[in-house]
Amino acid sequence: MSEVKSVPTDYGRSRLTARTRWRAARRGKRDGRAGIGPEHYARQLERGLRMALEDLRSRFVTRNAAHIDRVHAESARIVTEYDHRREDVPAALARFGGWVSQWRTEVTACQQRGLALAACADQELAHYEAAWTRARHRAEVRARRRARREAVRRADARGEPRPELPEPLEPPDPDTAGGIIPAPDEIWTGAPDWMLDEALVRRALHILEQRIGPAAAAAGRGERGTR
Length: 227
Fold this sequence. Notes:
Layout: H1 18-34, H2 38-63, H3 65-84, H4 90-158, H5 186-189, H6 199-212, H7 214-219
């Protein structure tokens, strides 16, 4: 059974809890002694991180469903007024820009939380690999000592010269242990335009850009008023 249970409940905002560090080190020590490669732990962490990110986004969208519904409703109004009735409604356009800006701000905060989870997963793997490297090095040193004692015993029994001492075993670099967690995809690293890809919303955003400029449409909150 997997012991990787720390995504996301044992993670802080951008750092590991002491319990997670301890558990990762314990698992790394055990796997290093047993000769289990770190790729297995990395795959478990990757699966846990992927599930945590999917859950984070799902809960965010569900919690903010009313907000995105409002953005879609305002989009329909903007398109109706500007494309069908050919009327200029600056207050409605400003209100729509405000809702879109607020949505993007909230999405950005959620993306930052997701990237913090990914950073914590990387930190956990680093703690695991450091412990794994130390344990693996000690296990290999012990194995070489046992092999030398056995070789010396056989040489003494046969009256042969004892074998020369082997070169000291240098500890490996933890960075070469082999565990890798892929970076989050573009949902978490790209533009905060979740749920803004419907045709009506894209058209309303285009109208907004035409009226107030691309930079203001992307970042400005606008006013919230009535027509």
